[in-house]
UniProtKB/TrEMBL annotation:
One of its GO terms (biological process) is ubiquinone biosynthetic process. Residues 125-326 form the 3-octaprenyl-4-hydroxybenzoate carboxy-lyase-like Rift-related domain. Coiled coil: none annotated. One of its GO terms (molecular function) is 4-hydroxy-3-polyprenylbenzoate decarboxylase activity. Residues 10-91 form the 3-octaprenyl-4-hydroxybenzoate carboxy-lyase-like N-terminal domain. Belongs to the UbiD family. Pfam families: UbiD, UbiD_C, UbiD_N. Gene3D superfamilies: Single helix bin, UbiD C-terminal domain-like. This is Menaquinone biosynthesis decarboxylase, SCO4490 family. GO terms for cellular component: cytosol. Residues 332-453 form the 3-octaprenyl-4-hydroxybenzoate carboxy-lyase-like C-terminal domain. It comes from Gemmatirosa kalamazoonensis.
C-alpha cells in the first residue's frame, strides 16, 4: 500500500502498534523535546508519539497536534519506504544499474517491466484545489506563533522547524532540490534558513545572490513519508528528490504549483510556508542550536526568509523531530541511507562489501567499512576513494576491515580492527573538509581525518609473521548442540 500522506503514515504506524497518543497537556517549549528524548532512547527507538493537546508559548492550546519520532525505529523506517527490509531498495537500485541488454526478443521483452517502473518515477504536477491549500494565510494573517513550533533545548536561539522539506531550484539549469534544513522562527512572518555551505540549497542561494536575484523558497512540513526521507538523502545535485521519492514509493509524487511563487509543492502536504530571500538584505543571526552531535552548534549568519503565504490542510498535523545526544530519530533516517545507497557506493568502489555509521559517530565522525581485500594497500585505496564521495568526504574516522566482519555489529567491528592493527603502521592521517558541526576541528569546516587499516596484513605490507586463524567451533559440534539445545533449559 502506497502511503500518500502524513496521515496515511501515522495510521499505518498506529495499526502496527507503534504509536502512542499523548492526551495530557504538554508545552511545545522544551517539554515535548524532553519527553521525546527519553522515548527515543528506549530499546529499539521507542514509539512514535502524537501529542494531541499542545500548549503554545502564550499558554493556549494549539489546534494542530504534533507528531514526532515517526521514523525512529527500524520497523517504522521500513514502513515509511514501503518495504519489509531497507536492503530491498538497494537491490532494486542494483537491478536498475544493470544496463546490459539481453540477447533475443524474449530477453529484451523481459526488460519492459523494469522500463515501465522507471517511467513512473517523475512527479505529476496537477492543477485545481489541493488539500494543502484548504486553509490559506496571507499578509497580516501569517502568524507562525499559531503553529506548535518547538523550542527543543534551553539554550536554543528560538523555536525551530526541523523536519522540513526545503524546496528551491537551480537558477541556471532549473533542477529542483529538496533538502532537510533546520529553520529558526524569527518573527510571525520571517525565519532564518540554516543551510550549510556543502548543501545544494546553499549553492542555489549563492548563485542567485551573485546575480542579485530574489530567491523563491518553499518550506514543507509534513508530506508522504518517502518524500520526507528523500529530503534527508545525500542525492547528487542533478537528481530531483521527488523523482527519488517516486522510485521509493513505486508511484509518482503529486505536486501542485505554489500559491505565491513558481515552485511546486506536494499536493497532499500538511503545511507549506511560501516565501523569498532578498539578496540585498544583510544576513541574520541563526542559533545556537542543540544539534545531532549532542552539543550546541554556535550562532552564525544565514539568510532570512520572508513568508508570503502559509497554506495547510483543514485538520493539519505538525510533523517535527528533535536532535541531540544519540541515539535519536535521525539515526534511523541515516541508517536507511546506508542501506539504500550501498549499491551506488559499490559502483565506484566495487571492493566494498558493506559499511555502517554507528549512532555514536553521529554520521560524520565514524564509518566502518568491510572490503574484499585482494592486494596490498587496498584498504588505503578505499579510504581515499570514500573521502572523494560526496558527503562521505566529511567522514572524520574511517575503519576498514575484512569482508567476513559484520560492520553493523559495532562490537565485532572494533574487536576485529583493534586486534588487527599496529597503530604506527596501520593508521594514516590526512587533511580535508569536515562537517560544519565539527566543533573540534582546527578551523571551521577544515581539519584532519584518520584512516585505520584493520584488515589482515599481507607480506607486501611488511608483515612477515604468521597470521593467526579465528577461533571457531567445528560444524559437527555446533549441529549436535543445536539438536540438544531445547533440552538444556537455557
Amino acid at each position: 500500500m502506497t502511503l500518500d500522506t502524513l496521515q496515511d503514515f501515522i495510521s499505518a504506524i498506529e495499526q502496527a502498534g507503534e504509536l502512542h497518543r499523548v492526551r495530557r497537556p504538554v508545552k511545545a517549549h522544551l517539554e515535548i523535546c524532553e519527553i521525546t528524548d527519553r522515548v527515543s532512547k528506549m530499546p529499539g527507538g521507542g514509539k512514535a508519539l502524537l501529542f494531541e493537546h499542545v500548549l503554545l508559548r502564550d499558554g493556549t492550546r494549539s489546534p494542530y497536534p504534533v507528531a514526532i519520532n515517526l521514523f525512529g525505529s527500524m520497523r517504522r523506517m521500513a514502513l515509511a519506504l514501503g518495504v519489509d527490509a531497507l536492503d530491498e531498495h538497494g537491490r532494486r537500485i542494483t537491478e536498475l544499474m544493470d544496463l546490459k541488454v539481453p540477447e533475443g526478443l524474449l530477453g529484451k521483452l523481459s526488460m519492459l517491466p523494469r522500463l515501465f517502473e522507471v517511467s513512473k518515477f517523475p512527479p505529476r504536477v496537477k492543477g485545481g484545489n489541493p488539500p494543502c491549500r484548504e486553509v490559506v494565510w496571507r499578509g497580516d494573517e501569517i502568524d507562525l506563533d499559531r503553529l506548535p513550533i518547538l523550542t527543543c533545548w534551553p539554550d536554543d536561539g528560538g523555536p525551530y522547524v526541523t523536519l522540513t522539506m526545503v524546496i528551491s531550484k537551480d537558477p541556471t539549469r532549473g533542477i529542483r532540490n529538496v533538502g532537510m534544513y533546520r529553520v529558526q522562527q524569527l518573527s510571525k512572518n520571517t525565519v532564518a534558513m540554516h543551510w550549510q555551505r556543502h548543501k545544494v540549497g546553499a549553492a542555489h542561494w549563492r548563485e542567485m545572490a551573485e546575480r542579485g536575484e530574489t530567491m523563491p523558497v518553499c518550506i514543507v512540513v509534513g508530506a508522504d513519508p518517502a518524500s520526507i526521507y528523500s529530503a534527508s538523502a545525500p542525492l547528487p545535485p542533478a537528481v530531483d528528490e521527488f523523482i527519488f521519492a517516486g522510485f521509493l514509493r513505486r508511484e509518482p509524487v503529486k505536486l501542485v504549483k505554489a500559491l505565491t511563487n513558481d515552485l511546486e509543492v506536494p499536493w497532499d502536504a500538511e503545511i507549506v510556508l511560501e516565501g523569498y530571500i532578498d539578496p540585498r538584505e544583510a544576513l541574520v543571526v541563526e542559533g545556537p542550536f542543540g544539534d545531532h552531535t549532542g552539543f550546541y552548534s554556535e550562532a552564525d549568519l544565514y539568510p532570512q526568509v520572508h513568508l508570503t503565504a502559509v497554506t495547510m490542510r483543514q485538520h493539519a498535523t505538525y510533523a517535527t523531530t528533535i536532535v541531540g545526544r544519540p541515539p535519536m530519530e535521525d539515526y534511523y533516517l541515516g541508517h536507511a541511507t546506508e542501506r539504500v545507497f550501498l549499491p551506488l557506493l559499490k559502483m565506484t568502489v566495487p571492493e566494498i562489501v558493506d559499511y555502517h555509521m554507528p549512532a555514536e559517530g553521529v554520521f560524520h565522525n565514524l564509518v566502518f567499512v568491510s572490503i574484499d581485500k585482494q592486494y596490498p594497500g587496498q584498504a588505503y585505496k578505499v579510504m581515499h576513494a570514500l573521502w572523494g564521495q560526496g558527503l562521505m568526504s566529511l567522514a572524520k574516522v574511517l575503519v576498514v576491515v575484512d569482508k567476513h566482519v559484520n560492520v553493523r555489529d559495532t562490537q565485532q567491528a572494533w574487536w576485529a580492527a583493534l586486534n588487527n592493527i599496529d597503530p604506527e603502521r596501520d593508521v594514516r592521517f590526512t587533511m580535508g573538509p569536515v562537517d560544519v558541526l565539527d566543533h573540534a576541528s582546527r578551523a571551521f569546516t577544515y581539519g584532519s581525518k584518520m584512516g585505520i587499516d584493520g584488515t589482515r596484513k599481507l607480506p607486501e605490507e611488511g608483515f612477515t609473521r604468521a597470521w593467526p586463524p579465528l577461533i571457531e567451533m567445528d560444524q559437527a559440534t555446533k549441529a549436535a548442540v543445536d539438536a540438544m539445545w531445547p533440552e538444556l533449559g537455557l
